[in-house]
Amino acid sequence: MKVTVSQIQHTGDIAIMSLQPKSGTTLAPYEPGAHIDITLDQGIIRQYSLCSADSNEYRIAVKLEPDSRGGSKALHQIKVGEELEISEPRNNFELDYHASFYVLIAAGVGIAPIYSMARSLKARGAKYTLLYFARSEEQAAFFDELAQEHQDALIPVFGSGRRDVQPALYRRLLSQSPDDTAVYVCGPTGFMDTARSVAAEFLAKERIHYEAFEADPEVLHRGETLSFVVKFEGETYEIPADQSVLSVFDAEDIPVLSSCEEGTCGNCVMRVVGGEPLHRDSVLSDQQHKDGYFATCVSRATSPELHLERINRRR
User: Fold this and answer.
1) Which stretches of the chain score pLDDT less than 50?
2) What Gene3D superfamilies has UniProt attached to this entry (predicted)?
């Protein structure tokens, strides 16, 4: 659907953009952690987490990446009044409301989905703490809003040495938290690795949730890269060791929605109905892997043959 950019605010290298529906249309509701796809020129598709307070608009935070492949740079050139093509919200980072306490951890632009979660938890009267890491207060997106809305829960950590205090801060907080505490973390890969590692000292793996904006190199190169065969919609396709399922499907003109091509967005996911997959994505949960979900852009097979089918989902 088409939306209009109604407002843009800049905080450091982050542009906070408000998107409003065209006349006669409405925006679909969404749950905390959800994101939208934005389709730009040349068919570039990028995902951005939603963090709106107003149901009549969507709000996203776009960090200008130095090595941008076109997405963030293009959006930072957008002006108020221009239109964007977006998808309906999808959620790969769902908030579980059954914990007795929540630890929300964000760094940089990772605050976007975490902010949405904090707002929802506060509205429900849930107990939570929000740790927000940034280079400085001036570069911390949404900081004034967060300080006003979540002053009793917010712990800001600013400065170049902020990562040095991470482990001790996490341990002090989690050592006093109940066993059913839920941790949600979003930010750069190294930042999240530290948070997840310390959290695992105190909590079961299923209590620790994260959303990756970039691929984990270790996961991307997990296992041995071998050629295999894919059976899909009655046809058989050879997948060479140096190509992905997605790239082979693209070459065969098989339409598959894709964006990141590194296992972080979930757009190209299909379902395995036969064979043994080798998962290399950073977006699907262990349960989703068990349910057969398969990222065609990076994941492979340990069996000679893999049977795939499309997943019917509303976009």
Assistant:
1) 314-315
2) 3.10.20.30, Nucleotide-binding domain of ferredoxin-NADP reductase (FNR) module, Translation factors
